[in-house]
Every structure is written in C-alpha cells, then in structure tokens.
Queue: 4 jobs
Job 1
Amino acid sequence: MMTQENWMFLYDDKEETRTRFVSFVGDTNRFDLAIIQTDRFYGKLLVLNLQSNKFAIIGPDDLKEPGYLEHVYGLSEAEAKELEQFLWSMIG
C-alpha cells in the first residue's frame, strides 16, 4: 500500500485562477462550461464541458486546428463550430 511518505511529487503548486461558468444554447446544442484562466497553461484556457465531463487546454492555435474540438469533446462539426465561435470571443 502506498503511503504519503512514498509519494514522489512532480509538482504541488497553488495558484490564483479566474473561473467563469457559462451555459448557452446554440442552434445545435446546449453547452455548460467551466472556463478556467491561469498562468499555468501559457495563456491558454482550461475548458471543461460539464455535460460530458471532457476537458481541454485551448488556445488560438488549437481553435485553428481542423477537427480539434470535434475530437476532444466528441461533437459534430456544427456543434464544434458553435463552441469555436464562443471560445474565440473568450480568447480573441
């Protein structure tokens, strides 16, 4: 059995974050998101989809990647386009 004395921490940091909880309905889907801003991810956002329990660290480069949101969140192309438009408003 592993005890606390045996744990090898790679890091154990505390950091102030800003979290936004947002729910919106698009033409194809309802989105319930928790969006966390921190210095930890080099300016990218930690975006949690509260309905599917899936998350990703997302920045402008990720939003430009074809099929990225579809793959990460298991969305259709139309659903991903709605989410992409919303996330651009957060990032850009």
Note: Residues 37 and 85 are 18 Å apart (CA to CA).
Job 2
Amino acid sequence: MSDRLMTVNAYTTLDYVEAVAKGAAFEWESVAVVNATADTEDPDCVHLQLELDNLAEEYLPKHMEDLELTPDQARALAADLEKHADRIDDAQADE
C-alpha cells in the first residue's frame, strides 16, 4: 500500500488486514492499515485509525478514518473485541 495518509512503521497496530468498503452502489475489497494510538504529550483520547488502500478504487477518494475514543470507550471496544475473538476461538476448537 503506497502513498498512505497514515504513517506505517514498526509501532503500527495492524499493518495489513482484509477490509471491505460498502456503499449504496458498490462493494469493494481491499487491504487496510489499522492503528490505535494516543498523543505522546498530554493525551486526552485514544485514536483508532483505519485506512484502506484505494489506488484502484473509483468510488472513494484517498482518505482515512480517525475515531477519537474516550478511555471508557476504548476499554468497551477492547472488551467487545476480546469477547468476539473468544467466541471464534471456541467455535474453531469445537470443529
């Protein structure tokens, strides 16, 4: 993924995930970068950032999403992710 808006380095949370962008008139699969971070000095929120590789996409201009989460929102999201990850692990263990 070249020409990114996000900085991707050794500290990036997930530098390659499969993603789908959906709109009223399109559905488009791509790879994406996901990062969770907070400001180094005086952090006041957690940033959850997502950028899809859109070099070949005609519907979406180059952009990234940046969600600003309170600490409680970040913990709620983390707990929900853990819950769903555990469900998948359990389902795969039963197979």
Note: The two ends are 35 Å apart (CA to CA).
Job 3
Amino acid sequence: MILEETHQHPKQQVSDSDLRYLSPIKIETKVEKKYCYFEKRNIKYIDYKDAPFLIKFLNAQGKILPRRITGTLQKNQNKLNAAIKRCRQIGLLPFVTDDLR
C-alpha cells in the first residue's frame, strides 16, 4: 500500500493540441470538372492516321488512358480506342514502349 501511494504520478492535463485524430482532417480542395475533349472542340471523326494527336491519349508505356482520367464520353472513347488500335496495326504507334513521351 505504501509503495503504491508513493509511486503514483500526478494526473497530467491533456490539451487540445495533444489529441490525435483517427480520421484525417478534411481539407476542401478545388476539383476541376472533367469534360469531353471531342465534344468541346466539336470533333466528329477521329483520324487514325494522326499519330501525334492520338499520343495525347496514351500513357508513357503506350497504354490507352481510361475515361475516368481523360473525361471523354463513352461513344468518343470507343471511337478513340478503335482509332488507336488501327494506328497500331498500320505501324504508326507502338503496341508497347518504355518511354513514349
């Protein structure tokens, strides 16, 4: 009993700065609205022979960027995919590369 009473520490006061939160603090960031590149510029036909234009929609490895990244509409993404695949078939774009850009 005597040992327990002598080794007790006084209660430490906890301040707001010492509190740690389990969830991160939400910071509001400005989110840019995505838009369809082809609708904005009123492009009806995507030319498969225009390789420098199609490179914009490929990543560094030569993979086609998805809609959630580019913001294109589904019908335009399908046209874009077909154009890129045709361009690869005739040899204007590589199928796979280490550094396209």
Note: Helices lie at 2-6, 37-40, 51-54, 67-70, 74-89.
Job 4
Amino acid sequence: MGMMKFEVPHTLSKDDARKRVEQLLKYWTDKYGVKADWSGDGAKVIGKVMGINLDASFTITDGAIQGEGTDPGMLLRGQAKSYLQKKFSTVLDPSKSADEVDKGLA
C-alpha cells in the first residue's frame, strides 16, 4: 500500500500546537484505542479510526503539521484525508482556547 502525505498549517507556537495535538491523540486513544508514540516534535500513530486503519507519523513545525500515513485506497482516500485535515484544523484553530478545543472533540 502507498503512502498519503498531509500538511495542516497553523499559527500557534510549536509548544501550543503540540499540546493541542496531544489533546487530539488522547481523544483518539480514548474513543478508538489508537496508540501514539512521541519522539521529539513528532509522533507515530497506529490504530483504527472510524473503521479506517491509521498508521501514520507526523512532525510539528513552526507553521504546520506535516506527515504521512498509509493510503487506505482510492475509495477511502478522500474521506481519510478530509477527516485528518478537519480534526487537525479544529484543534489548531487559534480563535479557540485549549479548553474549547477539548470540549469540541467530544
């Protein structure tokens, strides 16, 4: 299976972006049993989200989250990419506080 690349821009500090991404990963862990392994400014994520196998890695930089994951195939590619973009964009929204982000994930 091929790889699918993604990039989600943000305007937060790298530390704030990481804290918010940690909230997202905790949500995925609690809801779907996804496992996340952090190393520096990046993480490896393995599990199944909404029925789609997720095997991805990403890095938080000073302006974006960049990563790649296993391509779920032509039929689910658009859905998977859209879901990742939406979730990362939601948690990285600078107009929301970290508490609002946390409540919005539930």
Note: The mean pLDDT is 89.
